[in-house]
């Protein structure tokens, strides 16, 4: 079966599943392989659960004409998604960056949805599997697809760009994330910039933060760029008002009061504003969308529990996001402020230095209590209480209740520090 024939089959069965636990009636099941599993072994189960066809790449599993044999299931999924993307009218807006990708994607989606039929990457399904699945979720009526791209090595963004073939793109920032895979900060800049390289080489539009010197340098001579700035009047001006704790900004005389904490979310809002403006969304509609958006999934959520006012930012962490989170938390109203910080992952040879730097920063900002969790933080030289594991922290809190007040909880996804809520 060639790609065009497979696409015809997909149009008849537009739901795609890669997990037999999530099979929907009449879907196409793609039997992907991983380090510890072979999807071909689950093809029969997928069909029994209601899948219309199973796409496999090992002939021994082909038991009927309900099995579609190909050379490589993953490669077929990727090629099918690109083929489908090129059959659709939807414009593709892609974004990447070290921090804030998912929040920015959700803000852009919220703003554009006020005027257009818009879809966006679900959750953070932003890799070599997630991007194709997002493209395959584009319907005939979809006008704009907001596609998030993640990477932890060079050339990944270039590859994802070749799959999605975006019409527009934006990079949130260049920070200290995935240093191990990228080989340092310069590698991060090179890797994330692959999105801009794709767009400029294909004469596509680029959105940028004109206050970011790296972005300005990369796009200095490129004509098709649309930027925002707080100071440079050559670009669309947006004024930062405050983040105490929620971001307030002003654009064209209109005040927008968001439900996002932290000055670091200001630029995320700015990106959504200029993209909305470019696509002709009225400012009043942009304001409504930004003010209604509430962060979820442990991303900078503000909540009250057991006498604490908690900032839960436990979805992920790297040195850049950790620094701005601590600095912003210090600036928030209130005197009694404590921290529970978890290890930052994928830092390679930089791990010891970066964890020590964050511990020193926390000490310099003079918080009430600081608790450091994880093997990397446990090795730091600091006066704070350190715990090798979450279980050790849990046991301590059980016997030594924390002082009430404001509490920031932040760590990498693997630390799952949202579990602290059950302990408090």
TrEMBL record:
Pathway: Cell wall biogenesis; peptidoglycan biosynthesis. The gene is murF. Its EC number is 6.3.2.10. It is an enzyme of class 6 (ligase). GO terms for molecular function: ATP binding; UDP-N-acetylmuramoyl-tripeptide-D-alanyl-D-alanine ligase activity; UDP-N-acetylmuramoylalanyl-D-glutamyl-2,6-diaminopimelate-D-alanyl-D-alanine ligase activity. It catalyses: D-alanyl-D-alanine + UDP-N-acetyl-alpha-D-muramoyl-L-alanyl-gamma-D-glutamyl-meso-2,6-diaminopimelate + ATP = UDP-N-acetyl-alpha-D-muramoyl-L-alanyl-gamma-D-glutamyl-meso-2,6-diaminopimeloyl-D-alanyl-D-alanine + ADP + phosphate + H(+). It comes from Flagellimonas nanhaiensis. Coiled coil: none annotated. Residues 96-275 form the Mur ligase central domain. This is UDP-N-acetylmuramoyl-tripeptide--D-alanyl-D-alanine ligase. GO terms for biological process: cell division; cell wall organization; peptidoglycan biosynthetic process; regulation of cell shape. It holds the Pfam family Mur_ligase_M. It is found in: Cytoplasm. Gene3D superfamilies: Mur ligase, C-terminal domain, Mur-like, catalytic domain, MurE/MurF, N-terminal domain. Keywords: ATP-binding, Cell cycle, Cell division, Cell shape, Cell wall biogenesis/degradation, Cytoplasm, Ligase, Nucleotide-binding, Peptidoglycan synthesis. ATP binds at residues 97-103. The keyword Cell wall biogenesis/degradation applies. The keyword Membrane does not apply. Involved in cell wall formation. Catalyzes the final step in the synthesis of UDP-N-acetylmuramoyl-pentapeptide, the precursor of murein. Residues 299-382 form the Mur ligase C-terminal domain. Belongs to the MurCDEF family. MurF subfamily. InterPro entries: Mur-like_cat_sf, Mur_ligase_C, Mur_ligase_C_dom_sf, Mur_ligase_cen, Mur_ligase_N, MurCDEF_CellWall_CoF430Synth, MurE/MurF_N, UDP-N-AcMur_synth. GO terms for cellular component: cytoplasm. Residues 16-60 form the Mur ligase N-terminal catalytic domain.
């Amino acid at each position: 079966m060639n790609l065009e024939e497979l696409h015809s089959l997909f149009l008849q069965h537009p739901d795609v599943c890669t997990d037999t636990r999530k099979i929907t009636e009449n879907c196409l099941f793609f039997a992907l392989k991983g380090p510890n599993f072979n999807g071909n072994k689950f093809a029969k189960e997928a069909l029994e659960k209601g899948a219309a066809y199973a796409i496999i790449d090992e002939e021994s599993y082909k038991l009927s004409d309900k099995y579609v044999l190909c050379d490589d299931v993953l490669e077929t999924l990727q090629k099918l998604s690109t083929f489908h993307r090129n059959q659709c009218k939807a414009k593709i807006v892609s974004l990447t960056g070290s921090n804030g990708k998912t929040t920015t994607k959700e803000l852009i989606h919220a703003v554009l949805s006020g005027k257009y039929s818009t879809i966006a990457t679900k959750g953070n399904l932003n890799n070599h599997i997630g991007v194709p699945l997002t493209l395959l979720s584009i319907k005939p009526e979809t006008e704009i697809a907001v596609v998030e791209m993640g990477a932890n090595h060079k050339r990944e963004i270039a590859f994802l760009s070749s799959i999605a073939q975006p019409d527009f793109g934006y990079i949130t920032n260049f920070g200290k994330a995935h240093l191990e895979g990228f080989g340092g900060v310069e590698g991060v800049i090179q890797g994330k910039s692959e999105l801009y390289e794709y767009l400029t080489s294909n004469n596509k539009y680029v959105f940028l933060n004109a206050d970011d010197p790296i972005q300005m340098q990369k796009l200095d001579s490129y004509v098709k760029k649309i930027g925002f700035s707080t100071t440079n009047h050559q670009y669309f001006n947006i004024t930062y008002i405050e983040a105490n704790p929620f971001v307030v900004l002003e654009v064209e005389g209109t005040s927008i009061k968001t439900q996002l904490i932290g000055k670091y979310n200001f630029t995320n809002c700015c990106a959504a504003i200029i993209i909305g403006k470019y696509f002709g969304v009225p400012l009043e509609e942009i304001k409504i969308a930004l003010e209604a958006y509430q962060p979820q999934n442990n991303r900078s959520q503000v909540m009250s529990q057991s006498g604490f006012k908690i900032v839960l930012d436990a979805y992920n962490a790297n040195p850049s996001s950790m620094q701005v989170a601590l600095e912003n938390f210090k600036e928030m109203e209130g005197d009694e402020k404590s921290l529970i910080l978890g290890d930052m992952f994928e830092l390679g040879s930089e791990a010891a230095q970066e964890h020590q730097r964050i511990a020193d920063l926390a000490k310099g900002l003079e918080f009430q209590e600081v608790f450091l969790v994880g093997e990397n933080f446990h090795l730091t030289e600091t006066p704070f209480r350190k715990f090798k594991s979450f279980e050790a922290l849990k046991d301590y809190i059980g016997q030594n209740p924390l002082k009430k007040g404001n509490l920031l909880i932040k760590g990498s996804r693997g630390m799952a520090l949202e579990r602290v809520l059950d302990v408090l």
